[in-house]
């Protein structure tokens, strides 16, 4: 029996004996179940550095360009959680929060962003920026970069060195003007 | 060396720095050698400009139309247009003479003109460079192919001849390149029918003017100059609105990085004003023969006098005359406003006496070196 259109299928079911019809209903149920399962599978599981597993839905996952490319190009077995060895569960939950709000909160996104930023100290901000960079989440990365510029733009070079853990190597520029004095200090 | 543990990677740091104002970057040059080299590099200049030009300011130059020249003053509007902040924009240098004016703005560089003399000025880095350019009409723009800024000067064929329409005809052109630091004459035969050019409008890679022929004062021709390849092209303008108009004026503008033209008209002295905006589509596609002008919108008629001046972030920078009933052209107050062509909302920016002139530019600060 070849079934081409839905209307025809119903027509033919009605004409068939009860046991065949029951079997067909079972088939239909199985099909529906499979569809639901497929959707479940689309939810990808991510495993953080502290061994926590997150189920992430496709719309959020879409923002994480790195995970997307892992799935697409590396043909990863999506039934196994994808390890993210340099992201903590705390940061991943923040990231998922941000992506969720960014997608579904259209009314008071700015308010959320303000709250989000307030809950982070400098160190956490840096960790999150690295995580956003690693996962390649453009919206979060841009937001954090802009937050960084707001934080540092009016600060002094000393503050910047401290903030970014940068060693002051500009003394050697001065040493060209005062070589005798600078040499003995630098050699230590 | 440079960064200790926990430091952010180089590319992430660059992404943060590229969003900073120039003032901060100049201060951060002494943070480390790595930062100094990064901030000085042409690549970073480009990256920074990319971010800076996403939120450009509206620069309003004000000067008095008086017999005795007074130095101009400047205001910056922006960076957001939903709640425009207006700040003074003091020129860090003292203009050598009161006759100097800003005539163009491109990638953070302002082109200054004093009669026939030109100079380039970067207000953010406070650098100025006098150019060996002398001409009557000019154009200033950027070409990304050779990463160069050029000034094209257009002059009349015959010099020092008493005013005569025929002798006013242009026909010579010189191009000055900032990279090479020199200028050379280029072929300008195509310009010979024209005798006057409007202020230029620059879009990456091209400069455009409206040009008029000697005895044909009412029709405008669009002239384009390819900055990279250094040649002129004549383009067809958009179709004129139907019907007779006692007054109509064309004005070039930039709309989403495309050439645009305002057509501003009214039918009679007591009649309402209207204006249309046309955009030149596909001008970047050289395979397309002919010009494809698309009408973006047509606004009006207005009972008040509303002159379009330029476009800033989808809104029209307008000059509006505020005057008493019946005295339309009498001296009075004028207002520079931002007009939204879709909602017809208008935000007043600056009010001024009618003997002042405001000239708008789009300005994004940059590290571009002179």
UniProtKB/TrEMBL annotation, chain A:
<dbReference type="InterPro" id="IPR016073">
    <property type="entry name" value="Skp1_comp_POZ"/>
</dbReference>
<dbReference type="InterPro" id="IPR016072">
    <property type="entry name" value="Skp1_comp_dimer"/>
</dbReference>
<keyword id="KW-0833">Ubl conjugation pathway</keyword>
<dbReference type="InterPro" id="IPR016897">
    <property type="entry name" value="SKP1"/>
</dbReference>
<dbReference type="InterPro" id="IPR036296">
    <property type="entry name" value="SKP1-like_dim_sf"/>
</dbReference>
<dbReference type="InterPro" id="IPR011333">
    <property type="entry name" value="SKP1/BTB/POZ_sf"/>
</dbReference>
<dbReference type="Pfam" id="PF03931">
    <property type="entry name" value="Skp1_POZ"/>
</dbReference>
<dbReference type="Pfam" id="PF01466">
    <property type="entry name" value="Skp1"/>
</dbReference>
<comment type="pathway">
    <text>Protein modification; protein ubiquitination.</text>
</comment>
<comment type="similarity">
    <text>Belongs to the SKP1 family.</text>
</comment>
<feature type="domain" description="SKP1 component dimerisation">
    <location>
        <begin position="138"/>
        <end position="169"/>
    </location>
</feature>
<dbReference type="InterPro" id="IPR001232">
    <property type="entry name" value="SKP1-like"/>
</dbReference>
<protein>
    <recommendedName>
        <fullName>SKP1-like protein</fullName>
    </recommendedName>
</protein>
<feature type="domain" description="SKP1 component POZ">
    <location>
        <begin position="42"/>
        <end position="103"/>
    </location>
</feature>
<dbReference type="GO" id="GO:0009867">
    <property type="term" value="P:jasmonic acid mediated signaling pathway"/>
</dbReference>
Automatic annotation (TrEMBL), chain B:
<dbReference type="InterPro" id="IPR017451">
    <property type="entry name" value="F-box-assoc_interact_dom"/>
</dbReference>
<protein>
    <recommendedName>
        <fullName>F-box domain-containing protein</fullName>
    </recommendedName>
</protein>
<feature type="domain" description="F-box">
    <location>
        <begin position="2"/>
        <end position="54"/>
    </location>
</feature>
<dbReference type="InterPro" id="IPR050796">
    <property type="entry name" value="SCF_F-box_component"/>
</dbReference>
<dbReference type="InterPro" id="IPR006527">
    <property type="entry name" value="F-box-assoc_dom_typ1"/>
</dbReference>
<dbReference type="Pfam" id="PF00646">
    <property type="entry name" value="F-box"/>
</dbReference>
<dbReference type="InterPro" id="IPR001810">
    <property type="entry name" value="F-box_dom"/>
</dbReference>
<dbReference type="InterPro" id="IPR036047">
    <property type="entry name" value="F-box-like_dom_sf"/>
</dbReference>
<dbReference type="Pfam" id="PF07734">
    <property type="entry name" value="FBA_1"/>
</dbReference>
């Amino acid at each position: 029996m070849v079934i081409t259109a839905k209307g025809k299928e119903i027509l033919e079911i009605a004409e068939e004996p009860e046991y065949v019809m029951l079997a067909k209903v079972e088939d239909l149920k199985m099909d529906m179940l499979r569809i639901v399962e497929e959707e479940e599978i689309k939810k990808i599981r991510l495993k953080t550095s502290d061994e926590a597993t997150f189920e992430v839905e496709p719309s959020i996952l879409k923002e994480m360009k790195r995970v997307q490319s892992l799935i697409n190009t590396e043909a990863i077995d999506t039934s196994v959680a994808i390890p993210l060895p340099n992201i903590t569960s705390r940061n991943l939950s923040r990231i998922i929060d941000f992506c969720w709000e960014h997608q579904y909160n259209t009314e008071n996104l700015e308010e959320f962003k303000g709250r989000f930023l307030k809950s982070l100290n400098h160190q956490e901000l840096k960790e999150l920026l690295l995580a956003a960079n690693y996962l390649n989440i453009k919206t979060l990365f841009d937001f954090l970069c802009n937050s960084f510029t707001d934080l540092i733009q009016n600060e002094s070079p000393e503050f910047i060195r401290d903030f970014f853990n940068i060693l002051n190597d500009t003394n050697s520029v001065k040493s060209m003007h005062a070589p005798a004095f600078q040499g003995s200090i630098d050699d230590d | 060396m440079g960064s200790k543990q926990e430091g952010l990677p180089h590319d992430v740091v660059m992404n943060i720095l590229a969003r900073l104002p120039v003032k901060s970057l100049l201060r951060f040059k002494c943070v480390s050698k790595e930062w100094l080299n990064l901030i000085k590099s042409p690549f970073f200049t480009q990256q920074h400009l990319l971010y800076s030009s996403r939120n450009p300011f509206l620069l309003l130059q004000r000067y008095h139309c008086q017999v005795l020249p007074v130095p101009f003053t400047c205001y910056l509007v922006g960076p957001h247009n939903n709640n425009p902040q207006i700040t003074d924009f003091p020129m860090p240098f003292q203009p050598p003479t009161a006759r100097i004016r800003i005539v163009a703005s491109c990638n953070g560089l302002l082109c200054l003109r004093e009669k026939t003399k030109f100079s380039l000025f970067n207000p953010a880095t406070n650098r100025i460079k006098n150019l060996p350019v002398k001409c009557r009409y000019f154009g200033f723009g950027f070409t990304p192919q050779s990463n160069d800024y050029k000034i094209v000067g257009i002059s009349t064929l015959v010099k020092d001849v008493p005013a005569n329409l025929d002798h006013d005809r242009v026909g010579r052109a010189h191009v000055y390149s900032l990279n090479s630091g020199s200028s050379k004459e280029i072929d300008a035969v195509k310009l010979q029918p024209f005798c006057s050019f409007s202020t230029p409008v620059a879009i990456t890679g091209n400069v455009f003017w409206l040009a008029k022929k000697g005895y044909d004062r009412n029709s405008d021709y669009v002239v384009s100059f390819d900055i990279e390849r250094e040649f002129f092209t004549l383009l067809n303008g958009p179709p004129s609105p139907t019907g007779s108009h006692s007054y109509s004026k064309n004005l070039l503008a930039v709309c989403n990085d495309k050439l645009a033209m305002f057509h501003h008209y009214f039918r009679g002295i007591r009649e309402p004003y209207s204006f249309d905006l046309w955009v030149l589509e596909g001008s970047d596609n050289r395979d397309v023969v002919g010009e494809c002008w698309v009408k973006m919108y047509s606004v009006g008629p207005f009972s008040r006098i509303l002159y379009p001046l330029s476009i800033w972030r989808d809104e029209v920078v307008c000059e509006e005359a505020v005057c008493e009933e019946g005295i339309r052209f009498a001296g009075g107050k004028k207002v520079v406003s931002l007009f939204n062509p879709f909602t017809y909302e208008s935000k007043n920016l600056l009010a001024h006496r009618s003997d002042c002139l405001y000239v708008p530019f789009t300005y994004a600060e940059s590290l571009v070196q002179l």
